[in-house]
Amino acid sequence: xxxxxxxxxxxxxxxxxxxxxxxxxxxxxxxxxxxxxxxxxxxxxxxxxxxxxxxxxxxxxxxxxxxxxxxxxxxxxxxxxxxxxxxxxxxxxxxxxxxxxxxxxxxxxxxxxxxxxxxxxxxxxxxxxxxxxxxxxxxxxxxxxxxxxxxxxxxxxxxxxxxxxxxxxxxxxxxxxxxxxxxxxxxxxxxxxxxxxxxxxxxxxxxxxxxxxxxxxxxxxxxxxxxxxxxxxxxxxxxxx
Length: 241
Prior knowledge:
Structural class: alpha/beta
CATH class: Alpha Beta
CATH superfamily: Alpha/Beta hydrolase fold, catalytic domain
Radius of gyration: 20 Å
Distance between the termini: 60 Å
Number of domains: 1
Strand order of the largest sheet: 1-2-4-3-5-6-7-8
Shape: globular
Number of helices: 5
CATH architecture: 3-Layer(aba) Sandwich
CATH topology: Rossmann fold
Largest sheet: 8 strands, mixed
């Protein structure tokens, strides 16, 4: 007689499933809906948090690389799915009151139009990661004392290198500690997922004036996600009470 799980049937010894490494809950306040993911821990174990602001077309999967890396670094992550105008302040207030986050530093991560929103938010946060925000014409908000990571691709006409360099300089003059990273030959939204055989696509520019070519680059997406996680780890974990 063969028993399931016995060596004789070739299944090998049964192994208990690994315990979950994260906890997920819906996050809703007036004008804001999202998914909050927390590293597993005791109810009184508090952790810094990162708020992800989507590009203009809404959630499209590109945040997944970043969520995985940020969770691995020990952050809570709020992936905002819908956000009404002027509702970001309510989201940050509600997140800062969460029992697993209260008293901890909070950072902003934005893609495209979400990065523009993160740039223009005048409230205080600990750090901001701005991915291809459409550097031309941007003015820094109140970023004195904050750390800012600005990343763009050199093949992205909506983020020309000279404009991004000028914007980084303006951020520094406003009191931010700025790290500028340019990815050679990368297009707009290099970290966007390619569905099926989809290759190049045309997405709305961050300023909404026209469309720009986006070419997925999976390996670069992983690299940029690790860059973002490392940036937040360096600048937020040191600020923990």
